[in-house]
Write a structure and sequence with these properties.
With 429 residues, the chain is an alpha/beta fold. Helix 1 (15-26) crosses helix 12, helix 4 (88-97) runs parallel beside helix 5 and helix 13 (362-372) runs antiparallel to helix 14. It contains 14 helices and 17 strands. Bound molecules: NADP nicotinamide-adenine-dinucleotide phosphate. NADP nicotinamide-adenine-dinucleotide phosphate (NAP) is lined by residues 11-17, 45-48, 51, 66, 81-83, 87, 105-107, 132, 136, 303-305, 308.
Length: 429
């Protein structure tokens, strides 16, 4: 057993940070064999150092001054687990300034300032590892960035937010309304008190940007990702989807089209037999496609302190090995400049639910609007009669811009009383 020692400085000791401390302690002998040195958590920055925490650390290890951790000359590796853009971003840059490699789980920061941080790590020849930033405990970044170097990926498609997947699962299984399923998710700890980042798709968009950047070797930021959340999904949509043989999921999709990147997050109907339809509750799954590997699927717990901490510890051990070897892992892989393909140019299928006047000729009028906009209808049926008359359409593949134009024209048709819902349909035609 080695008697060499590297010291880890933690920024944050919440859900993930505390689990990292416990794993590094509980598996210390095995970790030492793998890393080639012992790894000791020497200093931890938190907001409130006086708060009791369930971690095997002396209270003197805690400080409220995060810079104290970064500046401590004894700290070899900085592990940022605070979250958010600031002070996390400045602390990581300060760590590089002091020649310390960094491990982080911070998707929000990477999706907004990834270029700045990776440029700083490249400039210093230091590691910046972030396996836990996407998919929690599911190994995704390393497989995409390293194991699949020999592939030219064409598509990444996944369920990357456990909170929204839990809510949609409850809506499908129990016929719950969105607000009730959200309240249950909050009660069970799957959703934050302020659920906006999850429910509105910001969290999934940040992860989509990171996955797209790595899969297609070009920088994609959160703002490049088209985003719709799930708060508009109704029990009616979920029920229509079920009757048609679909399941509603919040999907993150990144594709390479003619060297341009299309990246989007939105709820979509997927066929009930698609493997992603079986991803339930708070689980995550990501499909990756390329001409040589075909389809790969990564599945597991996409969040939670313990699963996420395994990814962080894996990174810390790799960074420690690199430090001892005087080496560095793979740095930034955004070698290309690629433009973003606008959403209006996307081709897709759509589900649209309209409340309509119940009289002869209405269907023909609506079909005329779709036809004039080059949107061809795959199936249509009527629900209810009189004041409750509704028409449900599924289209063939159409240009997003053309479909949206058709929808805006439909809103002006007198016989269309309300456009109640629109969902994309992700299926092979
Ligand atoms: N939780 C998950 O399932 C999960 C999954 C994947 C990735 N992540 C990412 O992992 C990171 C950490 O998430 P988490 O769930 O562990 O968060 P958390 O439970 O809220 O913990 C945050 C920690 O940061 C400390 N902190 C906050 N502001 C600070 C400051 N200015 N200086 C020093 N310490 C500060 C807090 O101190 P106090 O304890 O004193 O409040 C707390 O210990 C985030 O980037 C998150 O996106 C989390």
């Amino acid at each position: 057993m080695t008697d060499r020692m590297l010291k880890v400085g933690l920024l944050g000791c919440g859900n993930v940070g505390a689990a990292v401390v416990r794993l590094l302690h509980d598996h210390r002998d095995d970790i030492a064999r793998r890393a080639g040195c012992r790894l000791e958590v020497a200093k931890v920055a938190v907001r409130d150092p006086a708060r009791p925490r369930d971690v095997p650390l002396d209270p003197s290890a805690f400080t409220a001054d995060a810079m104290e951790v970064v500046e401590d000359p004894d700290i070899d590796i900085v592990c940022e687990l605070i979250g958010g853009c600031e002070p996390a971003g400045s602390l990581i840059l300060a760590a590089f300034d002091r020649d310390k490699p960094v491990v982080t789980a911070n998707k929000e920061l990477l999706a907004t300032r990834g270029r700045e941080l990776l440029d700083a790590s490249d400039a210093k020849g230091l590691d910046l590892y972030f396996e836990a930033a996407v998919g929690g405990g599911i190994p995704l970044i390393r497989p995409l960035k390293e194991s699949l170097t020999g592939e030219r990926l064409t598509r990444v498609l996944g369920i990357v937010n456990g909170t929204t997947n839990y809510i949609l699962t409850r809506m499908s299984d129990e016929g719950m309304r969105f607000a009730d399923a959200l309240a249950e998710a909050q009660r069970l700890g799957y959703a934050e008190a302020d659920p906006t980042a999850d429910v509105d798709g910001h969290d999934a968009a940040a992860k989509c940007a990171i996955l797209a950047s790595i899969a297609f070797n070009a920088r994609v930021v959160g703002g490049d990702v088209y985003r719709e959340g799930i708060s508009g999904v109704t029990t009616e949509d979920v029920e229509f989807a079920r009757r048609l043989g679909y399941v509603v999921k919040l999907l993150a999709i990144a594709e390479l089209h003619d060297q341009r990147i299309a990246a989007r997050v939105h709820p979509a109907m997927i066929p009930a037999e698609h493997p992603l339809a079986a991803v339930r509750d708070a689980f995550n799954a990501v499909f990756v496609e390329g001409p040589n590997v075909g389809e790969l699927m990564f599945y597991g717990r996409g969040a939670g302190g313990e699963p996420t901490a395994t990814a962080v510890v894996g990174d810390v051990v790799t960074v420690a090995r690199n430090l001892l070897a005087g080496a560095r892992g793979v740095g930034c892989t955004c070698f290309h400049e690629r433009t973003i393909r606008p959403m209006a140019e996307m081709d897709g299928q759509y589900y649209i639910l309209l409340r309509v006047e119940d009289r002869p000729g209405v269907l023909a009028e609506i079909a005329g609007v779709f036809g004039r906009n080059q949107v061809s209808i795959k199936s249509v049926w009527q629900e209810g009669t009189g004041a409750d008359a509704q028409l449900v359409f599924i289209t063939h593949r159409a240009r997003e811009g053309a479909f949206q134009q058709a929808v805006s024209e439909l809103r002006a048709v007198k016989a269309v009383e309300e456009v109640r819902s629109i969902l994309r349909v992700e299926a092979e035609e």
